[in-house]
Amino acid sequence: ALGGVATRAVLVRACSRRAVDAAIATSAMMGLVEPMSCGIGGDVFVIYWDNKTQTLYGLNGSGRSPYSISRKVFSDKGLDEIPINGPLAWSVPGCVDGWDMLRKKFGTLEFQDLLADPIRTAEEGFPVSEVIGRSWAGGQAALAGWPDSARTFLPGGKAPQYGDVVRLPELGRTLQMIAEGGSEAFYKGEIAKKTAD
To answer: pTM of the entire structure?
Structure first.
């Protein structure tokens, strides 16, 4: 429902494990206030420098294709390439699993703490920035073609503009489910079932 595969690269140069906590919380908040270019429906890539051990780590949190997809699925539909929009363009989102791996290896906080501010902001609302307002308007036609996307991201039938306060309570509930159930809630629970349906 985030309108396509989104990616966000995160570079963390850290002297402490708290930097990882901040990076995850920031990534979650960016996925809320900038839903067209990052978020739980996309991927996460991390380069992490552990100053204590003088070790560089990398995390490729890009999603793979669904297990049931093959070239035959596309050829049977008369497609020569993967379409830009729609379910055949989707990969399994790697973001939430990437956060979880990063949190467990380098972080200090649980998902409940990391996602508290984005959950609250999703419920209370946030003002749309000028840049995001322009980007949102540029995606209005594409969002209008998908009923759930239109309902969620085109309140009143149009893209939010600069200064409008947007609430995304469904995303808040999804983040709450992740906060309570971890990445398993995203990939194997109710969220996964609804996404697949």
So the answer is: 0.85
